TrEMBL record:
Name of protein: N-acetylated alpha-linked acidic dipeptidase like 2
Coiled coil regions, renumbered to chain: none
Entry GO terms, CC: membrane
Name of encoding gene: NAALADL2
Principal location listed in the UniProt entry: membrane
Subcellular location: Membrane
């Protein structure tokens, strides 16, 4: 806990200590956010009263000395920079309306004696010399003064471009190649040390290790097997025949072809083809066969794996052979003989669900998270099991793998895993904000976990975050700082269910709920090379489109930006689903992969460095991802007003209720009211705040507090396994409706009435109503503050 205590409780922050004799017993050493709000309002009220008394010039000096006692979004603000009448209802309104207000209390000018002509000439000559001398000094001082002295509260797009232009593809390529040399080390801590050393050399501040002892489900000493009952042939997961030599010579890739946290043991049963395992597939199968304790042949994709496994478990299956149909992959991708890994862990340490794995925490015994025996296998092994040789016809039309219903295949599957407690390490460093150090923009990548498969796409993620840190610190060393604190995190244990990010999030949940304004994900940024695929929260989609259009204009390539809010893999999970934090992720994909069924990315293939360099030989795509992500980070971290769009959330809600969906009349009416409130909020509060001439500091602070918490209204407590709790995110680009309603409608089809549908409708209704109340409350707060000031 001490690791990040300094950041979240005030080390090196802009807070000031309260004198001991002024604090109530038990009060925190530092002002919390509520105290700050009260302090800001009290100071403003005192200022109004002070303006009514003589001696305003003395008050100005006193207030300038004491303005740092409280801290809000306007810390370090100089009173001299505030002009009378900045806001129509600002604190200095009366100074503008009553021109004689100050002169009414002005002291009489002292009487002066009559001077002779010679004395006047001496004064004139002296003043002339001083003026010329001062002009010369001022000219050279301005010429030599670095631009870094500019206040960080002023937004300069050219400043961002100066930072980002130092990012070079060649440097990213060099970092990538250095990082991939580290995966061979069996010690997870050694990789973390190398990342910390590299970040420290770049100047990043207060880099720390955050370690958690967690329960990992690891493969056994030898690969799992599948044996055909009819012939007695034994096969390894990649389709090769079993042999003593093959077992001894099995590579780590083959060893790590397993489902983490699956049940272990042996099951002999009939294989039943359930296709993608949807509710329709299972209804069809149950009409034809008895599925109790049988083995399901399941395709990955279309729906979250955890959800499909829960359906199979409830139906009565005992085991699952999981594979990817070659027809769901691009023609250029040949994974027929490749094995892969999946994790059945929804997130975090399974032994401490919902709470951090701190020393002394109660540990639950959860060696497996399902009663099913689950084994990933290659498409070539599936073809062997169903006696199919070709997957493509002579016309190059792909034929999906399918086991005929009238054929029976009996197999014996053996799953071997070992459960052990291991240490997972996060690397965390930060650049402290100048104006609002208690507001955090989190940038997340992940590094290789020594106990997992040989994948190397993590090196792309780590090289990109390192490249941005290098560019940012070059500017920070010259005196500039962002308004808000930027926290850089390299997560451990991602392959096992985002364990590092979940444990860190649970550890600092109370602080993060209050202070995180955005999460920028750099998880697996290069999955293809043909199409940029940005994913963003609804409130951030306009910013993503704007940055991408600007970037493609510079490259003279401007394809239409298709940004969406869909479920994604990686460590953003906790921040989206438990904290309701606005999130952005840029990644390159293959166009064919985007057209394929969703959730194929749940399979973790051992992608080697050579494959990544084939997709991006000159690392230009890496550079583009770094610059796009960097622009978004800088805009959020440095803009006086958070660049979030409240109205886009309301529009997303309305779009999610379109179509012939039953029982949505009340939801549509409520969504319409939400839109009205969002429009009032957008025009009444956000537009004035974005005008520097209308930017009252207290209003900006209050506005940012509202903007950063908008998505929290859409977190629902209960969802089907594998579904996002944040209902603003859809299952995929093909599904525009609320995912929990889609699932509930599928579930209730065969039933006359269904409690699941009623519960889902209630969850959505409560979320929309909560958001509408939230916007209205925000408007009322602004109105009450303005009335109080007048």
């Amino acid at each position: 806990l001490k690791i990040y205590f300094s950041i979240f409780t005030g080390k090196k922050m802009a807070y000031q200590k309260v004198n001991a004799d002024q604090r109530a017993p038990g009060h925190s050493q530092f002002l919390d956010n509520d105290d700050l709000q009260a302090t800001a309002l009290d100071l403003e009220w005192d200022m109004e009263k002070e303006l009514e008394e003589p001696g305003f010039d003395q008050f100005q000096l006193d207030s300038a000395e004491n303005q740092n006692l409280g801290h809000s979004e306007t810390a370090d603000l100089n009173l001299d920079s505030i002009q009378p009448g900045i806001s129509p209802k600002g604190r200095f309104q009366r100074l503008q309306e009553e021109s004689d207000y100050i002169t009414h209390y002005a002291r009489p000018a002292p009487k002066s004696n009559r001077c002779n002509l010679c004395y006047l000439l001496k004064i004139l000559c002296t003043a002339t010399v001083l003026f010329i001398f001062g002009t010369v000094i001022g000219y050279y001082a301005h010429k030599n003064c670095p631009s870094d002295a500019t206040s960080s509260g002023t937004v300069y797009p050219q400043l961002y471009q100066e930072i980002l232009k130092t990012i070079q593809a060649e440097e990213i390529k060099k970092s990538f190649r250095n990082f991939i040399q580290l995966y061979k080390n069996e010690d997870d801590m050694e990789i973390s040390k190398q990342i910390k050393t590299h970040w420290t050399s770049l100047g990043l501040e207060d880099i720390q290790f955050v370690n958690y002892s967690v329960l990992l489900n690891l493969p056994g000493a030898s690969p799992s097997t599948v044996t055909l009952n009819s012939s007695g042939q034994c096969f390894l997961p990649n389709g090769q025949p079993c042999s003593e030599k093959a077992r001894k010579d099995s590579s780590q890739d083959l060893l790590y072809s397993y489902a983490a946290y699956s049940a272990k043991g042996t099951l002999k049963a009939e294989v039943i083809d359930v296709s993608y395992g949807t509710t329709d597939d299972l209804k069809r199968i149950k009409k034809m066969k008895n599925v109790t304790n049988q083995i399901a042949l399941l395709k990955l994709g279309k729906l979250p794996l955890l959800y499909k496994l829960s359906l199979l478990e409830n139906t009565g299956f005992g085991g699952v052979l999981l594979y990817i149909d070659p027809c769901d992959l691009p023609k250029t991708a040949n994974f027929s003989h490749d094995t892969f890994m999946v994790s059945l862990n929804p997130g975090g340490d399974p032994s401490t669900p919902g709470y951090p794995s701190a020393d002394g925490s109660f540990r639950q015994s959860r060696s497996n998270l399902t009663s099913l025996l689950v084994q990933p296998i290659s498409a070539s092994l599936v073809a062997t099991l169903i006696s199919s040789v070709k997957t493509r016809t002579k016309n190059d039309v792909c034929s999906p793998l399918e086991l005929p219903n009238n054929e029976i295949r009996i197999v014996s599957m053996q799953v071997q895993t070992v459960t052990k407690f291991k240490t997972v390490t996060n690397v965390v460093g930060y650049v402290r904000g100048l104006v609002s150090p208690d507001r955090y923009v989190i940038v997340g990548s992940h590094h290789h976990t020594a106990y997992s498969y040989n994948g190397q796409e993590w090196a792309s993620s780590t090289a990109i975050i390192t490249a941005f840190i290098r560019a940012l610190m070059l500017r920070v060393k010259r005196g500039w700082r962002p308004d808000r604190t930027i926290v850089f995190c390299s997560w451990g244990g991602t392959a096992f269910g985002n364990i590092g990010s979940y444990e860190w999030g649970e550890d600092f949940k109370k602080v993060l709920q209050k202070n995180v304004v955005a999460y920028i994900s750099l998880h697996s940024p290069i999955r293809g090379n043909s199409s940029l695929h940005p994913v963003a929260s609804p409130s951030l989609q306009q910013l993503v489109v704007e940055k991408n259009n600007f970037n493609c204009t510079r490259r003279a390539q401007c394809p239409e930006t298709n940004v969406s809010s869909v479920q994604i893999q990686g460590d953003a999970d906790y921040f989206i689903n438990h904290l309701g934090v606005p999130t952005v992720q840029f990644a390159y994909e293959d166009i064919k992969a985007l057209e394929a069924p969703s959730f194929l990315s749940e399979a973790l293939f051992p992608r080697h460095a050579t494959k990544i360099e084939e997709m991006d030989p000159f690392f230009n795509l890496h550079e583009t991802i770094t610059k796009l992500s960097g622009e978004v980070i800088l805009q959020i971290a440095n803009g006086p007003v958070l660049p979030y769009n409240a109205l886009d959330i309301a529009l997303e809600v309305q779009n999610s209720l379109k179509g012939d969906q039953p029982n949505t009349g009340q939801l549509l009416a409520l969504a319409s009211r939400l839109r009205e409130s969002a429009e009032l909020f957008q025009s009444g509060e956000m537009r004035p705040a974005n005008d520097p001439k209308e930017r009252a500091p207290v209003r900006v602070r209050m506005l940012n507090d509202i903007l950063q918490d908008m998505e929290k209204s859409f977190l629902v407590p209960q969802v089907p396994p594998g579904f996002y709790r944040n209902i603003l995110y859809h299952l995929d680009e093909k599904t525009s409706q609320f995912s929990i309603l889609v699932e509930a409608w599928e579930h209730c089809k065969p039933l006359a009435s269904n409690e699941t549908l009623k519960e889902a409708l209630s969850e959505v209704l409560n979320s929309i109503n909560s958001a509408q109340v939230y916007f209205k409350a925000g408007l009322n707060v602004f109105e009450s503050v303005l009335v109080g000031k007048n």
